[in-house]
Amino acid sequence: MLGLYSVRDVVVSARYVSNAWTAGQRQNPNDRSSPFVWRLASANDYAELPVNFTSWSSGEPHRDLCIGLFRAGNNMWFDAACNNAYNAVCEIRIA
User: Fold this and answer.
1) Is residue 69 a contact partner of residue 19, using CB atoms and an 8 Å limit?
2) Which of 35, 41, 42, 61 is deepest in the core (most CB within 10 A)?
3) Does domain 7-88 have CATH number 3.30.1330.10?
4) How far apart are CA 41 and CA 79, in angstroms?
5) Which spans in the chain are helix H?
6) 26 and 34 in contact (C-beta within 8 Å)?
7) What is the pLDDT of residues 51-89, one digit of tens each?
8) If DSSP codes are grouped into helix, strand and coil, which group holds residue 44?
9) Average pLDDT of the residues in 10-34
């Protein structure tokens, strides 16, 4: 299974781009009040983990399905429609 890093470790790569997507999504895409989870995948594994830490921007979340990072908001979180075109924050395993 993919390991989790702190949000501070992950957002370093998002510092110099526009808004970015994370792996956070609503647990049930048909229920916009369902909790958010991290959906992590690799070539041989898939995991759905609870979101135990949050860093929502003021006024967030709304009732959208996916979690993104505001570039102009000090990498605070927002939720939006998953089909918006943003960069992605990716996790890679470093041996």
Assistant:
1) yes
2) 61
3) no
4) 20
5) 7-11
6) yes
7) 998 999 999 999 999 999 887 767 799 999 999 999 887
8) coil
9) 78
